[in-house]
Design a protein that fits this description.
By secondary structure, this protein is mainly α. The protein contains three helices and two strands. Helices cover 68% and strands 4% of the residues.
C-alpha cells in the first residue's frame, strides 16, 4: 500500500501541484539572476516579485471559491479570470 493511497491523485491535481512547484523554482531562479526591487503600484503597499506572486495565488483561490459558490459555469472560466488577475497583479501592483 502506498503512503499516498489516501489522497485522490488525479492528473489535474498532479499538474496543479507540479505547476506550483515549477513556479516556485522559476521565481527562485529569477530572484538569483535579477534581484527583486520593491515597488508601489495600485496596491497600498510596497511589494516585491514574491509578494505579488503570493497575492496572485491567494486571489486565485478566492476567485475559484467565489466562482464555485456563485456560478454554475465551468471552472475553466474562473481559471482564465485568475490568470488575467495574476498578470495584472504581477505587472502593475
Amino acid at each position: 500500500m502506498s503512503v499516498f493511497a489516501w489522497m485522490a491523485w488525479t492528473w489535474p491535481t498532479a499538474i496543479f501541484f507540479a505547476s506550483i512547484a515549477l513556479l516556485l523554482v522559476v521565481m527562485t531562479v529569477l530572484e538569483l539572476v535579477w534581484p527583486s526591487v520593491e515597488r508601489r503600484g495600485f496596491l497600498p503597499i510596497e511589494t516585491s516579485r514574491g509578494d505579488r506572486l503570493f497575492i496572485s495565488l491567494l486571489s486565485a483561490a478566492y476567485i475559484h471559491l467565489a466562482w464555485l459558490g456563485l456560478s454554475d459555469l465551468p471552472l475553466w472560466y474562473a481559471s482564465g479570470l485568475a490568470l488575467l488577475w495574476a498578470g495584472i497583479v504581477m505587472r502593475w501592483a
